Recover the amino acids of this structure.
């Protein structure tokens, strides 16, 4: 199983294994496939994973809900980790564990004839995915110490955007009030030795996350970075003829 230490990650919304290959070749250590807001499905996710199956890049799938009906299929692709949205209380945590892990830790069903187990070749029935929780509400922040105390939880993603909406700071994800919430999550994550992921959009925000102790700064989203680069190139052309 791949390890989750430190590095830089990115969200992949586009369902293309070519995008995944570009992300890997650009040097990223981690990629989060977005099945909630992105254009990903299980088949597209599988193709993306095949592309980087023999590499060191760590793969995470953000599922649309804790009780996502296709969660078993996502796990069977061989994904390294799962990220569950809006985890707020003990009931939410217990559902993520039951849905994700094999007995005796959880209640996930098992078939060895899938990519995760090399189509029956790998007999390691304990090859569970890592579990991540998305803390993106004030209630989640308030309960973060309890949520992160569960040994089955491996990492936490700080959901700055949804939290900014709830706190009437829409899109201002580095507002002092948002950063104070992030500090609470970081403090509790460090207590229980959990890895912390959080998004940034520019160099100053990246430096701030690193200084705060975020293990994996997330370099925005594939679509946003592609758009920015295209706009930059068009601007270069426009400025040269004006």
């Amino acid at each position: 199983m791949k390890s989750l230490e430190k590095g830089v990650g990115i969200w992949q919304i586009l369902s293309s294994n070519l995008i995944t290959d570009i992300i890997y070749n650009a040097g990223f250590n981690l990629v989060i496939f977005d099945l909630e807001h992105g254009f990903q499905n299980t088949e597209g996710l599988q193709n993306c994973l095949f592309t980087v199956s023999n590499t060191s890049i760590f793969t995470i799938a953000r599922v649309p809900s804790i009780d996502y009906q296709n969660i078993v299929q996502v796990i069977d692709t061989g994904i390294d980790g799962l990220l569950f949205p809006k985890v707020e209380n003990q009931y939410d945590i217990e559902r993520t564990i039951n849905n994700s892990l094999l007995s005796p830790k959880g209640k996930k069903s098992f078939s060895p004839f899938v990519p995760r187990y090399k189509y029956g070749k790998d007999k390691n029935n304990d090859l569970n995915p890592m579990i991540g929780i998305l803390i993106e509400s004030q209630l989640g922040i308030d309960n973060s110490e309890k949520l992160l105390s569960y040994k089955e939880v491996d990492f936490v993603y700080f959901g700055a955007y949804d939290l900014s909406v709830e706190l009437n700071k829409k899109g201002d994800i580095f507002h002092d009030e948002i950063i104070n919430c992030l500090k609470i999550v970081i403090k509790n994550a460090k207590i229980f030795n959990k890895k912390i992921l959080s998004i940034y959009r520019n160099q100053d925000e990246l430096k701030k996350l690193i200084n705060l102790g975020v293990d994996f700064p997330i370099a925005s989203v594939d679509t946003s970075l592609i758009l920015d680069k295209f706009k930059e190139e068009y601007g270069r052309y426009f400025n040269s003829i004006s």
In short: The chain has ten helices and eight strands. Strands lie at 9-12, 30-34, 58-62, 81-84, 130-135, 155-158, 195-199, 216-221.
